[in-house]
């Protein structure tokens, strides 16, 4: 009789034990009360459109450059200045064209100017050591091409050696120059190979009268950077032709805006009227300060796109419910070669019943969680760590860059803040199985106790595992008593 009762108790307990695990899988893990990773947004913060500006031939302070940089900075339009880093080599004797690094540093410090390389002395390819024939014929000046290494890697080193670059272009002590602007729009296969080897990510061409370009350039796997980047329009009145009608310029922006494209405005500041009320002033007013537009320098635009299309980051998760932790990682070599300090926007699907969302992040498992700043679609912001939620579409857009203390970012998306300890948390799988184990012990012990009580009343002794247990001992039984040899 005892064996039958014990066997029944054990069977029932095991069924309950297994059922707890099944409940966990079917109810808890399938619960909609947790975020799900979707992917990387095409543009930062899932913006509708991009505005980027590239400016050619910065060497030193002129009234045109001063007015240009002042206007764009005042209107919070990020831009890329193509710097000629060593123009004194081969220029006309007596003409002072040395690069004014203090002037350039001042504008970099204002927070809206990116520095790109425009070579060391602005000559055509090939960089084979001979003089630039085109310049000799058209300008009567002898300027040496020197070498590919001197022009491409040398100009990059000039920028890094003479400037202190902001955080978006840094990783620890390393600094980065992501963009190359072709002098005269001249480039060949050897230059492309050198650009990839020197860590550039994009190479903007120059093709007067070319059709407007509103899209990303394709990845050039052979050389390890994006193919030659086009532009939407050149603003100004240079001798090779440009656009100076505010209506025409605005229309080209509208094409990009309406189609979710990239509006890439090119200018040679010397050939632009930057006066108040002029066409440049009107057009930059028209395209600036829109909350659904991503304003970004050219190099950072392609750094972001590189992370996206080249699958540079990897996302995994542990835990469940609002305790679910997402781990975003980057390969150590990619991190060191390109930094990726600029925030990348990760898209998450959130449960339809979430009315508030709290996003926490940290860079190491041992770090305390940091509550990420929340922004709305009405806020104007670019390039900051921030979260934004579209509760109608049940999406969270979480923008965060990598730091120099780890190769990971950890995220939590919750519907209650971490400080709310009274909020019921989603149980773990271990918790459900623990309930089953405890239930098994309780049911078995209860069955033995009831059987003992019945046997005591009938004056019987309980025989277990070949031993007689008198009732004066059974009144004080415990697990050790039952299973001792």
What can you tell me about this protein's structure?
The protein is of the alpha/beta class and 485 residues long. Helices cover 33% and strands 21% of the residues. It has helices at 2-28, 63-74, 101-109, 133-139, 148-162, 189-197, 246-258, 279-287, 298-309, 332-338, 429-457, 471-474, 479-483; strands at 36-40, 49-58, 79-83, 113-117, 170-171, 174-175, 179-181, 202-204, 219-220, 225-226, 233-235, 262-267, 293-295, 313-318, 325-330, 344-349, 358-362, 370-371, 374-375, 386-390, 395-400, 408-414, 462-464, 467-469. Strands 2, 3, 4, 11, 12 and 13 form a six-stranded parallel sheet that branches. Strands 1-16-21-20-19 form a five-stranded mixed sheet. A five-stranded antiparallel sheet has the order 14-15-22-17-18.
Brief account:
The protein is an alpha/beta fold. It has 13 helices and 24 strands.
Topology:
Layout: H1 2-28, E1 36-40, E2 49-58, H2 63-74, E3 79-83, H3 101-109, E4 113-117, H4 133-139, H5 148-162, E5 170-171, E6 174-175, E7 179-181, H6 189-197, E8 202-204, E9 219-220, E10 225-226, E11 233-235, H7 246-258, E12 262-267, H8 279-287, E13 293-295, H9 298-309, E14 313-318, E15 325-330, H10 332-338, E16 344-349, E17 358-362, E18 370-371, E19 374-375, E20 386-390, E21 395-400, E22 408-414, H11 429-457, E23 462-464, E24 467-469, H12 471-474, H13 479-483
Parallel strand pairs: 2-3, 2-12, 2-13, 3-4, 7-8, 11-12, 19-20
Antiparallel strand pairs: 1-16, 5-6, 9-10, 14-15, 15-22, 16-21, 17-18, 17-22, 20-21, 23-24
Helix pairs in contact: 1-11, 5-6, 7-8
């Amino acid at each position: 009789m005892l064996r039958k009762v014990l066997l029944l108790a054990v069977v029932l307990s095991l069924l309950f034990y297994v059922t707890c695990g099944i409940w966990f899988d079917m109810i808890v893990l399938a619960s909609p009360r947790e975020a799900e990773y979707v992917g990387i947004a095409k543009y930062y913060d899932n913006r509708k459109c991009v505005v980027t500006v590239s400016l050619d031939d910065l060497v030193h302070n002129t009234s045109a450059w001063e007015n240009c940089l002042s206007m764009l900075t005042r209107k919070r339009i990020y831009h890329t200045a193509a710097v000629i880093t060593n123009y004194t080599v081969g220029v006309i004797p007596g003409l002072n064209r040395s690069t004014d690094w203090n002037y350039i540093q001042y504008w970099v410090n204002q927070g809206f100017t990116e520095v790109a390389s425009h070579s060391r002395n602005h000559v055509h390819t090939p960089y084979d050591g001979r003089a630039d024939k085109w310049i000799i014929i058209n300008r009567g000046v002898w300027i040496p091409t020197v070498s590919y290494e001197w022009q491409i890697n040398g100009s990059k080193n000039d920028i890094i050696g003479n400037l202190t670059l902001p955080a978006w272009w840094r990783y620890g002590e390393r600094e980065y120059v992501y963009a190359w602007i072709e002098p005269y729009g001249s480039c060949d296969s050897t230059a492309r190979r050198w650009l990839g080897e020197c860590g550039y990510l994009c190479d903007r061409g120059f093709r007067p009268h070319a059709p407007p370009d509103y899209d990303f350039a394709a990845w050039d796997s052979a050389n390890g950077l994006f193919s030659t980047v086009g532009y939407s329009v050149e603003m100004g009145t240079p001798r090779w032709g440009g656009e100076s009608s505010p209506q025409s310029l605005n229309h080209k922006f509208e094409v990009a805006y309406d189609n979710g494209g990239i509006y890439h405005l090119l200018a040679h500041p010397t050939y632009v009227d930057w006066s108040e009320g002029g066409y440049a002033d009107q057009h930059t007013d028209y395209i600036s300060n829109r909350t659904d537009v991503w304003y970004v320098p050219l190099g950072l635009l392609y750094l972001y796109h590189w992370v996206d299309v080249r699958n540079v980051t990897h996302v995994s998760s542990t835990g469940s419910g609002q305790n679910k932790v997402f781990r975003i990682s980057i390969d150590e070599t990619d991190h060191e070669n390109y930094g990726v300090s600029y925030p990348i926007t990760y898209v998450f699907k959130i449960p339809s019943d979430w009315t508030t969302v709290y996003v926490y992040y940290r860079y190491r498992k041992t770090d305390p969680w940091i509550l990420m700043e929340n922004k709305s679609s009405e806020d104007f912001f670019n390039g900051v760590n921030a979260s934004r939620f579209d509760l109608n579409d049940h999406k969270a857009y979480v923008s965060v860059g990598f730091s120099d203390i780890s190769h990971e970012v950890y995220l939590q998306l919750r519907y209650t803040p971490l400080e709310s300890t009274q909020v019921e948390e989603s149980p773990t799988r271990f918790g459900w199985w623990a309930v089953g184990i405890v239930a098994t012990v309780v049911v078995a012990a209860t069955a033995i106790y009831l059987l003992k009580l019945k046997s005591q009343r009938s004056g019987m002794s309980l025989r277990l595992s070949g031993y007689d247990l008198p009732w004066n001992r059974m009144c004080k039984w415990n697990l050790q008593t039952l299973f001792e040899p």
